Amino acid sequence: APVRADDAKPDAAVQAALRNGLLTNAPDGQFHGEQAVTRTQAVRAIAHLARALEAGIWQTGASPAVPQSIVPTLKRADWHQQVVTRATLAATLARLGDYVAKGLPRPSPTDKDRGRSKALPRSVHLTLPKTSPAYADLAYLASRRMIQSGSPFLQPDARPVRAAELSRGLTEMTLGLTDRLTPLGLDARGETPDATFHQKKNRSERNNQINRNDRSANPILPPG
User: Fold this and answer.
1) What is the 3-state secondary structure (H, E, C) of the chain?
2) Of 173, 158, 169, 168, which is closest to residue 39 (Cα–Cα)?
3) Which residues pair with 160 in a beta bridge?
4) Using CA atoms, how far apart are residues 39 and 42, in angstroms rounded to an integer?
5) pLDDT tens for residues 116-157?
6) Residue of higher predicted confidence among 24 and 105
7) Using the 8-state DSSP alphabet, how is residue 120 labeled?
8) Is 23 helix (H, G, I), strand (E, B) or coil?
9) Tally of CB atoms within 10 A around 198
10) Alpha-carbon distance 41 to 21, whole Å?
11) What is the pLDDT of residues 17-52, one digit of tens each?
12) Which end of the chain has a smaller Cβ tally under 10 Å, C or N?
């Protein structure tokens, strides 16, 4: 169910966000889910989520389906301009964390071609000073191509995050994370290979090289 900022009992999503270190309570011990999220806070929370998922230490929850109650919100013409609250951020990150942790297989140490997708752009260049509270988190995202050029989170500051900005940030992070956790190797038809794909590929390349060498050593003379 959607998170309510005024719940006396902490929502499961809030508990997940706190348990996984994505967000923290205020000094008064309260979560204050009604407060708007700043760009700095959002990029740090996204990076924390990405680290936990990449390391395989995300503590999953029940992973409830997206409720139908969200449909009217998505049909609103101004949904993308809605300010993201701490309660909304907690619910979104907790749900995404559970989906990714349960949906993406853990990589094997022998997996090849991880983090080498040519479909993703190159790492972006950071311009913010290293003294920025969000620098280390942004550097992590950038080094793993989990944030792309033009992202509003490249300028972390006190401005409130809008729904469309959060959606873009999480999409880019998930794309980069998927690249980090899954090997590239596809067969000629673009299908997922079996465990012997790279062995077959290497064997085929060796055979092709042998054939090229044979043709070079025994050229076919034209009839004369």
Assistant:
1) CCCCCCCCCCCHHHHHHHHCCCCCCCCCCCCCCCCECEHHHHHHHHHHHHHHHHHCCCCCCCCCCCCHHHHHHHHCCCHHHCECEHHHHHHHHHHHHHHHHHHCCCCCCCCCCCCCCCCCCCCCCCCCCCCCCCHHHHHHHHHCCCCCCCCHHHCCCCCECEHHHHHHHHHHHHHHHHHHHCCCCCCCCCCCCCCCHHHHHHHHHHHHHHHHHHHHHCCCCCCC
2) 158
3) 38
4) 5
5) 788 888 899 999 999 999 999 999 999 999 999 999 999 999
6) 24
7) S
8) coil
9) 15
10) 12
11) 999 999 999 999 999 999 999 999 999 999 999 999
12) C
Altogether, the residues listed in the chain come to a count of 224
β-partners of residue 162 are: 83
Long-range contacts, stretch 22-29, CB < 8 angstroms, 24+ apart: 22/48, 22/49, 22/90, 22/93, 22/94, 23/86, 23/89, 23/90
**Cα–Cα distance measured from residue 216 to residue 150, given in angstroms and rounded to the nearest whole number:** 51
Residue type, 52: A
**Would you state the torsion angle of the CA atoms of residues 70, 73, 74, 76, taken in this order, to the nearest 10 degrees?**
160
Identity at 16, one-letter amino acid code:
A
Element (H, E) at 94: helix 86-103
The token pair at 121 is 């752009």
**Residue that is written with structure tokens 């390391």 in the block:** 55
At residue 222, the 3 state secondary structure works out as coil
Residue 200 vs residue 39, higher pLDDT:
39
